[in-house]
Write a structure and sequence with these properties.
Number of helices of chain B: 4
Largest sheet of chain B: none
Strand content of chain A: 15-25%
Mean pLDDT of chain A: 80
Helix content of chain A: 25-40%
Largest sheet of chain A: 7 strands, mixed
Oligomer: heterodimer
Structural class of chain A: alpha+beta
Order of helices and strands of chain B: HHHH
Helix content of chain B: 55-70%
Number of strands of chain A: 20
Number of strands of chain B: 0
Radius of gyration of chain B: 12 Å
Distance between the termini of chain B: 7 Å
Shape of chain B: globular
Low-confidence stretches of chain B: none
């Protein structure tokens, strides 16, 4: 039997309100199927299941607010018989009493699968950083429930425990006794909640991640000429935005610097394989989400454009999927439309890098010793010093500049992802 | 297809409201830069033009984007190609 737990849908989420179940006990479910809708401070998110199986029991009722990691339902693996305890002989476990996590887990998991694997610990290692933090805050780390790998106690667990002690209200009580706001609140409240969530995640990022920043001015004449030709030969609905070329260029350039691409979890860097680029999307009326476009490296440009259009639309309509919220491996932010020259972003934990683009502007530039006017863009990199250093960051930006000078290659990089050390 | 200016304006504002639902059509000054008034990013702007294309069946070349600044510019452009 598998427990289907509330996944973390980003660093800025530590609890969510279950709005609707799309399944009932006995339903067959497939990996990737949307089984519930959960309201976070940012949006109602379609939550996907990560196992094939049959729904055993629904443990949480719609309208209930629960911490990340709470078991929402039991799932029987394919071929697994229903638990006799759950079906006939024993009374069903009481609803609304999540049995596992006693503290919210602001530490985002590598992937929903990981979140779901956190089973009751037999031993609870404490990360060195968490031990130090526990001392600073006067918390007994042995009394804290771990949510990290192998249920280890993380800094986030310690901080969550400290804030719970301060407020005098254990998280579990919050989950079961506080009357849950059963529906999204007013837009003003929503905006306030979202601002709080962003502040918490970004505050944590700035506290915990030793950022370093690099920037590079990139000539865009070749890329924009290529784009103008492409767009002139396509209908308006098929046209590409420069942002799509930049997104693709980031994915191609990342091939040689895997240190910038992945997660930093529990004191160790875990490189990612596929490039799921989180795209920072500003919401009308304020706030920001950065859901992922999956596997940018292997998608053709026209597919990326359709994905980006769809993602922006759904982000603003508030219908994102849980996998999009939880698995970006790097974030790309494009503030060019606002006319800023450059953006130096704050890394979205547990990611280890963020790439920013300012606006494309015609400015003076020296090429082959000659002063000329060219469209230029400033690309920036904010990266986590625990996972990489400036040398690798500089290599990445140089590669980014190089691939943007070869728009044809970029368009072709669509069918086969270039191998490491690709010549030309 | 011929369309009078009022019909065109209403159509364009309807398209705009699907992209920026918070906009009050009566607040739009047709002689001022539209993207600045409504805070449309390049994706919104493209979607706006795609919406106009679908509604009025008018081709809008990318090379003409630079001349489309105000709502009046957009309406003039569409009107000229409807006749």
């Amino acid at each position: 039997m598998i427990e289907f737990r509330l996944p973390s849908l980003g660093a800025d989420m530590d609890e969510g309100t279950l709005l609707t179940w799309h399944v009932k006990a006995g339903d067959t479910v497939q990996r990737g199927q949307v089984v519930a809708v959960v309201d976070t401070s940012k949006a109602a998110v379609d939550v996907e299941i990560w196992h094939d199986g049959v729904v055993g029991q629904l443990l949480i009722e719609p309208g209930t607010k629960v911490p990340v990691g709470t078991a929402l339902a039991t799932i029987l693996a394919p071929g697994e018989a229903a638990d006799p305890m759950a079906t006939a002989t024993a009374p069903p476990p009481p609803i609304q009493k999540p049995t596992v996590p006693t503290s919210p887990s602001p530490t985002p998991k590598l992937a929903p699968e990981t979140a779901e694997k956190a089973i009751t610990p037999t031993r609870r290692p404490v990360t060195p950083a968490a031990r130090r933090r526990a001392q600073e805050l006067g918390i007994d780390s042995d009394s804290v429930k771990g949510t990290g790998a192998q249920s280890s106690v993380t800094v986030a667990d310690i901080e969550a425990a400290a804030s719970t002690q301060k407020s005098g209200m254990p998280a579990i009580a919050l989950a079961s006794s506080t009357p849950a706001p059963s529906a999204p609140t007013s837009p003003a409240d929503r905006a306030k909640e979202m601002r709080k969530a962003i502040a918490a995640a970004m505050g944590r990022s700035k506290r915990e991640i030793p950022h370093y920043y690099l920037s590079e001015t990139i000539p865009m004449a070749l890329a924009l000429d290529w784009l103008a030709k492409y767009n002139a030969s396509h209908t308006i609905a098929e046209r590409l935005l420069p942002a799509v070329l930049m997104l693709k260029a980031v994915a191609v350039a990342l091939k040689r610097t895997p240190q910038l691409h992945g997660f930093y979890v529990d004191g160790a860097f875990q490189p990612a394989t596929a490039i799921h680029a989180g795209v920072a999307i500003s919401l009308r009326g304020g706030g920001l989400v950065a859901p992922a476009i999956h596997d940018v490296g292997s998608k053709p440009l026209d597919q990326l454009m359709r994905d980006l259009t769809d993602l922006v639309k759904r982000a603003r309509a508030g219908s994102l999927r849980s996998s999009e919220m939880s698995d970006p491996t790097i974030t790309v932010t494009n503030l060019g439309d606002q006319g800023v020259e450059a953006v130096f972003g704050v890394i979205y934990p547990p990611q280890v890098a963020l790439v920013g683009f300012g606006s494309v502007q015609t400015r003076p530039w020296v090429q082959d010793g000659v002063l000329c006017a060219l469209p230029l863009v400033t690309a920036s990199l904010a990266a986590d010093h625990r996972a990489s250093d400036g040398h690798q960051g500089a290599l990445f930006l140089a590669e980014l500049r190089a691939v943007l000078q070869q728009p044809d290659t970029l368009a072709e990089a669509v069918h086969k992802t270039p191998p490491q050390g690709d010549p030309t | 297809m011929k369309a009078d200016r009022a019909t065109l304006t209403e159509g364009a504002l309807t398209v705009l409201s699907t992209i920026a639902p918070e906009v009050e059509p009566q607040d739009i000054d047709p002689a001022r830069a539209l993207r600045h008034q409504v805070d449309l990013d390049s994706m919104d702007w493209l979607n706006f033009l795609v919406g106009l294309h679908e509604r009025f069946g008018v081709e809008i070349a990318e090379s003409d984007y630079a001349g489309l600044i105000t709502l009046n510019d957009v309406l003039d452009y569409v009107q000229a190609r409807l006749k």
